[in-house]
Amino acid sequence: MSEFDVGNRLKELRIASGLSQRQLADAAGVPHGQISMIETNKSSPSVSSLRKILGGLGIGMSEFFEPDAPDDGAVFFTPNSFRDLTSRIYREHDTISGRISLKQVGDARTNNLQILHETYEPGADTGETMLEHFGNEGGVVIAGELEVIVGTTSRILKTGDAYLFSSQEPHRFRNVGDRPAMVISACTPPYL
Predict the structure, then answer these.
(1) I want to staple 170 with a disulfide (CB 3.0 to 4.6 A). Which of 53, 109, 127, 130 is the partner?
(2) Which contacts qualify for 101-108: CB closer than 8 Å, 24 or more apart?
(3) Residue 136 dihedral angles phi and psi, to the nearest 5°
């Protein structure tokens, strides 16, 4: 598979939406120069930054990475059929904040429910900028430990522990352990 060009894809979508770089930055609530840096591939966005920018375009990560993926009406899925929403935005040198893998089951938009298999490598963090979006989300930790921060509340969840909250509360996920953490999560309506 060839490397996904995040910068070019963002530029195509921005132009198709009739927005200047400054207008998109304002709509997304990010610094103006960040859009230019990403579009020219001089900067690789974090997951939270990319989500925020795509929110300014009114689309999710699934649409960004798999715009033409048809819903084939499948009911059952194997791990090989999950949509990898994030692996293509990381480059090999991006190891400081750790790697996060988000794999989606089926077509979230058609079903109005997003189910993800999430993996957080040691040190992985969704970013200092807390995530906020319309909807509700929950998940169960199936391996390792994951710190979940919701508003001013924080807890390290271990295998078997779960979370459920309104996604309008600022939230963040970090692996503070020394082994990968895995989560099965759901969000409605779909966010990514």
Answers:
(1) 130
(2) 102/47, 102/61, 102/192, 103/79, 104/62, 104/192, 105/77, 106/71, 106/74, 106/77, 107/69, 107/71, 108/60, 108/62, 108/190, 108/192
(3) -135, 150
pLDDT surpasses 70 at 88: no
Q: CA angle, corner 23, sides to 21 and 26, nearest 5?
A: 110
CATH number of the domain located at residue range(s) 79-188 in this protein: 2.60.120.10
Average pLDDT, integer, range 102-116: 88
In angstroms, the CA 129 to CA 170 distance is 9
- Per-residue pLDDT tens for 29-52? 989 899 999 999 888 887 778 888
Do 79-188 and 6-65 have the same topology in CATH?
A: no
Backbone angles phi, psi at 56, to 5 degrees: -65, -25
Q: How many helices (DSSP H) and strands (DSSP E) are in the chain?
A: 6, 9
Region 8-26 average pLDDT: 91
